[in-house]
Write a structure and sequence with these properties.
Elements (H helix, E strand, L loop, with lengths): L27 H12 L3 H5 L13 H13 L5 H10 L1 H6 L12 H7 L2 H5 L1 H15 L7 E10 L23 H12 L20 E3 L7 E11 L4 E9 L2 H19 L5 E5 L5 H11 L2 E5 L5 E5 L9 H12 L1
Parallel strand pairs: 1-5
Antiparallel strand pairs: 1-3, 2-3, 3-4, 5-7, 6-7
Helix pairs in contact: 3-4
Amino acid sequence: MMMGRQAGDQSQLFYLFNLEERIPARHLLRRINPIATRVLGDLRGKLQPFYSEIGRPSIDPELMMRMLMVGYCYGIRFERKLCEEVELNLAYRWFCRLGLEDRVPDHSTFSVNRHGRFRDSDIFRQLFEAVVKACMDAGLVKGEGFAVDASVMEADASRYHGQAPGEIDWSAPERQTRAVAEFLSGLDDEDPNEDRKLPKVISPTDPCSAWTAKANKRVQFGYGLNYMIDVEHAVIIDVEATPARTYDEVAATRTMLDRSETTFGLKPERLTADTAYGTGKLLAWLLDKASRRIFPYGRDTNRLMACSPASTSLMTPSATSISVRTASL
């Protein structure tokens, strides 16, 4: 058989193309599309008060949410890159309900909405809770054992420009930013009974971040992304962002436990955490809240487990699996 050559002048004037038929039945996005459709069903109604009735039509909020889901599922961390991928990938276009000729939103649209109507409406929290409820309906959440931990996320702030709080002129024009306004507002709202002092070093551009060396032993400004996970299938039950300080991360644990009980009616029998969470305030709160016993657990006693008096599973194989699974999170 002789070698062929691809001709460059075989373009057609018209194409018959059905995007629906191009996505395989077992494709991840096709499998999660029914759930996404259900979760996003009343999205527009919830966001209606945050949109103007006059002016140019805005970007459909469901389109932006679907694009963010694509980014999460495929590890696309940057919105500029996400827009490029949705532009080129047929499956991404199909999931986002974009035709071949539909325009993909500009990457700046996400940040504008995130700090505007999405933030004001608390829509991200509502969608997160809707996904957790879908997991509960599917039997993926047992609700008997939770694990808590925090990951450090580096802030968009230079580690070389930290200053003492008293040295910063907050009235300077370059300090009139959203981040500074939130920081100063947080100081006004802080509970005076906590008697907390300002940190010795803060970032003038992102003062809500914390001076930390947790992430990679390099001192930097960062945030703590706190997760509470149901250990049965490693489903995230709640998440809370805080400055990367142990005090704030421990306080977030109480917030997440209370919120999961109020929102989902979940009251776990066991709570597993490392020793950073073994502060007197948290242990006293757990004992007062549910008469729980707190004690070291594991061969190296590096973990604390809170357990209700009625529970005896800490000495069973299932407790060992909890400890191992928590260690792998």
